[in-house]
Automatic annotation (TrEMBL):
Alphabetized UniProt keyword annotations: Cell outer membrane, Membrane, Signal
Source species taxonomy: Bacteria, Pseudomonadati, Bacteroidota, Sphingobacteriia, Sphingobacteriales
Main location: membrane
Domain RagB/SusD, residue spans: 294-547
Cellular localisation: Cell outer membrane
Source organism per UniProt: Sphingobacterium anhuiense
Record domain SusD-like N-terminal: where: 25-216
Protein name per the record: RagB/SusD family nutrient uptake outer membrane protein
Family: Belongs to the SusD family.
Source species, domain of life: Bacteria
Amino acid sequence: MKFNFISKILICASITMLFSSCEKFLDRDPLSEAAEKNFWKTENDALVGLNAVYTALPGERDFWRDCQSDNSVMTNAWGEGGLGYISMGNHNAATAYVQEEWRYDDIRKCVYYLQQLSKMSFTQDLKNRLEAEARFILALRYFRMVQHYGSIPLIKDKPINLDESALPRTDKNLVLDYALENVVYAIDHLPEHHTGANLGRINKGAAYMLKANIYLHKASIKQYHEGAADPQLWKQAYEAASEVLKMGYGLVDDYAEVFKQANNLNTTEVILARQYVEDKITHMLPVLASPAGTGITGNGWASFCPTRELVDSYLCTDGKDIRSSNLYDPAKPWENRDKRLKKTFMLPGEHVLRPNGKYAAYQPHPAYNMGEKINSEGGGITGYMYLKFNEPEYVKTDAGFANWPIYRYAETLLIIAESLNEFKPGDLQIKTMIDQIRKRAGLPLLSNSDLSDQAVMRKLIREERRHEFVAEHKRYFDILRWKIAEDVLNKNAEGINSNQNDLIGDWTKPRFLAQNRKFEKIKHYLWPVPQSSIDKNKNLLPQNPGW
């Protein structure tokens, strides 16, 4: 097998080094005398060190985090330190999971790397590129923490241990300004594409996507939270994303293939992905996404389940929702629908692979007493499960290796459409961008009347983002920045119809309750600063509003 650069570096057993693993080395005391004397000498040292920094990129765990939104439910809400509590509104500053996004270990790792790199001497062009990759990761981590916590401590030049410092929080806008400074450096020094052994490294397109996302966030907060729309911020998001249009990316024909292991080398649509390698660097998505009794092994934990509201929100092929379309048949609810519906989910009545190698109907209702029945071990709690990021034919269900897409070209198109609709509504390019997404989904192209109505377009763009990025952990950040979380997360999560005799697609009938949810707008748009960090550094006070 031919491994790409991350595989070569992170499989540390194959590297002769003075330390046991790349990541552990970067996690050790940055001021270690041994580290200073015995490493950071050669170009290869710089490469090895940087690839340990790459572990700070988001990965498959973001699949889990979609349950923080109205898309998904975690079967055992208390698991992973209370991940499932976020959507329920049951978390607080002492909830263990709240610490998970407070990633100053990653910040320290990035800053330490940049400090050491600055002292090294080798080819300047390569040194600039490696610095650009590290600065991209630093910017991404700061941006993500601002999205969760708002104002946070800002560490720039020295790898400080935050818990041992007395650093106060820096205004979130200054943190984002610093993130943008790093992104601009990355844009200036990264190539558009990598090839060969460097395939998978951070590139210029990824840097532009990060820049676009930061401005999209800033524009949304200004408009929806502060009531002070700033067309210039939307324009900057648009301009950054538009640069990616020039780089040769496109949509692949089959939506489902983007998320398969066999597609790991796809660089047509995927701009940047966290890299995985069969039997070497793996994850558990196949077993987490599957219910028991399905797939070639029959092993499944059903850990995360799509909500009924999400499934019902997919349009019919005439572009109308299920409540208004003449094409919708409650007895055959999966027909004449957005193609992404069947490619994303296991749906009641649809045939799925079984351990005997044959296909049979997926029947999660308890009346059928199948392995996938809801509210049982391995059955989940809504009656819907995932095909996206799943590999039913793969026997190593706890060792999946599909890459995790951080940025896809589909997001480029939708950022352009959303930002244009806000600062230049009615522009024909909005239709051009969205039509590419809708064509692949089997939906009708936009009409001129749609395009001329900004409110209609805003709703439509938001629907496209939701359905395109299910399970990719985009939705949670979207409902926060649009300030609609107070609406969508104050509705209970539900599953399939509770009466076996009711048509499975009849939305008027009683359903199984999956989860009670609550979102308090005065506090839940930000997470609390973790109590464990405040206990060590009182300068992190005051706590976020409401906490």
